[in-house]
Specification:
5-stranded parallel sheet; two-stranded antiparallel sheet; 36% helix; binds zinc ion
Length: 242
């Protein structure tokens, strides 16, 4: 279905020239199809200092150990999460289009810009990327899993990476968007399982991939599932931190 969408989009582009998803200006010649250089510049990037656990940026002067409000009480099953953009402004709007307005074609462009981030590329290098799965009912509604598409794109462009769809979501959870931190953790606890027959290797480094890290509850639940199946090296990454 994703491929058909892309083909449709390709035909559409022949008739109507493409505009940048951020600036709305006509696209210049670019390796990306829907995100111009000027548009990419407007995405709010995360820079150091940042939380070594969830990747949330710290603002202002940091002295000593700084408690991160996003990781507070999370004790995640993943070692470190790295995110590239703040989930606000244009980056938030692009992710919203990807998730709720059937725009899978924006995934590759956003992931492509993310790969210009040196820390993000190094964080992924040489690992097995495991996308957060969607419940089959949600997948039917949306037509694609954006996390799978992100992982596939990243794996194709980062040396030594491959994407493996190891997990499945067995419980349909309610949307997390209106839930608080504790409620999110309860909501996704036990929601994910390793797909029957998929091996989990204790010597492989896995990086769980999602579009947005908000409280870290979903990435934690996926990482915990991998660990219970025998993984010992589990990290996480998302395009944006919300
Ligand atoms: Zn944190």
């Amino acid at each position: 279905m994703g491929l058909l969408e892309d083909l449709d989009r390709g035909l559409f582009d022949l008739v109507f020239p493409r505009d940048c998803a951020v600036t709305q200006e006509p696209m210049e010649t670019s390796e990306r199809l829907h995100l111009s250089a000027a548009g990419a510049d407007r995405l709010d990037r995360i820079t150091d200092p940042r939380c070594m656990c969830c990747g949330h940026p710290f603002e202002g002067v940091i002295e000593g150990d700084r408690a991160c409000p996003h990781c507070h009480e999370l004790h995640p099953a993943f070692g470190r999460a790295v995110c590239v953009f703040r989930a606000r402004g244009p980056a938030r709007r692009i992710i919203h289009r990807i998730k709720y307005r059937h725009s899978p074609f924006l995934v590759d462009d956003l992931a492509s810009v993310a790969l210009a981030d040196d820390l993000f590329r190094r964080h992924l290098a040489g690992s097995v990327l495991v996308p957060v799965p969607l419940h089959p009912a949600r997948l039917r509604d949306r037509g694609y899993n954006q996390a799978e598409r992100i992982a596939t794109f990243l794996a194709a462009h980062v040396p030594g990476c491959r994407a493996e769809f190891v997990l499945r979501k067995q419980n349909e959870t309610v949307s997390q968007t209106r839930l608080g931190r504790q409620e999110r953790r309860k909501n996704v606890a036990g929601a994910f399982v390793v797909i029957d027959g998929k091996p989990v290797d204790p010597t492989t480094r896995y990086v769980v991939i999602d579009d947005v890290l908000t409280t870290g509850a979903t990435l934690h639940a996926c990482a915990l599932t991998l660990r219970k199946a025998g993984a010992t090296l589990v990290d996480a990454a998302a395009l944006a931190h919300g």
